[in-house]
Design brief:
Length: about 100
């Protein structure tokens, strides 16, 4: 049940992230290689700047400096609403 829920959240988050301009998904998308972790690189803004903007909103992400990327966890302890809040704040941080 945990794995199923985690993958549902991850798939939802991944689909929504693909709609946002200025980032590229770097996590594997093949079901056999997928986990609840989603990573994406940023094309025109520093990942540390985005992470700081998100932190002010109590959203903590992992910064991957070498890739100018951000990693998030879509584990079963978060909700679809949490992902929606993250996506909203991410979009605002990218402006």
């Amino acid at each position: 049940k945990i794995q199923t829920r985690t993958m549902q959240l991850r798939n939802y988050c991944l689909a929504e992230l693909k709609k946002i301009k200025g980032l590229q998904i770097i996590s594997p998308e093949a079901p056999g290689l997928s986990t609840g972790i989603v990573s994406f690189s940023l094309q025109s803004i520093k990942n540390s700047d985005v992470a700081e903007k998100l932190k002010v909103k109590d959203i903590i992400v992992k910064v991957l400096p070498r890739l100018n990327a951000i990693r998030i966890s879509c584990h079963c302890f978060i909700s679809k609403k949490d992902i929606d809040v993250f996506l909203k704040e991410l979009k605002a941080a990218l402006l």
